[in-house]
Amino acid sequence: MINRQVSFPRDEQGFFRWECPLCCREFKVLLKDDELGQIAQSSIEDFLIEKGVHDRSDDEESEEPQEFFCPYCGQSAPSDHWWTQEQLAYIQVIAQNIMADLVNEQLIRPLNRSMGHGSFIRFEGKEMKKQDEWISPEASDMTVFNLPCCERQIKVADDWKGTIHCFFCGFAYGNTANKQPE
After folding, report:
1. Residue 147 to residues 8, 68, 124: CA-CA distances in angstroms?
2. What is the mean pLDDT of the chain?
3. Which of 40-49, 72-81, 123-132 holds the top average pLDDT?
4. 3-class SS letters over the chain
5. What is the pLDDT of residues 32-54, one digit of tens each?
6. Alpha-carbon distance 11 to 14, whole Å?
7. Torsion of the alpha carbons at 152, 158, 163 and 169, rounded to the nearest 10
């Protein structure tokens, strides 16, 4: 298993931006550090598995992703489906950099050393380049909404007038019942 610490920007209050994979509306969730880290690690591993760089162990297969609910449309999706497009691009760059490190350390450098000067076979491999790992800072926008059902908080668009669903359990609330002014 490849383990890599990934940090994502949060707003001034610690909220993290997500995007519904179904209605494509953005909202924010106040997550615990370990929750976000586990979801990010899973997404990086999925990318590396897809590219054939990493194999999923038996332990990893048994763990089903947690389901979350969109605060706007109420539909559910697995925990690794809520990334914004910018976050997905950031995760992809991180995974590609991990892949570049692995190829450079385990293939290119050893071949360059073993087939260098004095060898009948010549190999001149160029190392894979790494990309800058950068993501935009998070703006402090949206309106806080308390979720008494799960004792958590989310942020929704300031102009949202519809029902608000709990991100964690899906419970539906009236549109202004638990909104807090920022």
Report:
1. 23, 14, 59
2. 82
3. 72-81
4. CCCCCCCCCCCCCCCEEEECCCCCCEEEECCCHHHHHHHHHHHHHHHHHHCCCCCCCHHHHCCCCCEEECCCCCCEEEHHHCCCHHHHHHHHHHHHHHHHHHHHHHHHHHHHHHCCCCCCCCCCCCCCCCCCCCCCCCCCCCEEEEECCCCEEEEECCCCCCCEECCCCCCEECCCCCEECC
5. 767 777 777 776 776 666 655 55
6. 5
7. -20
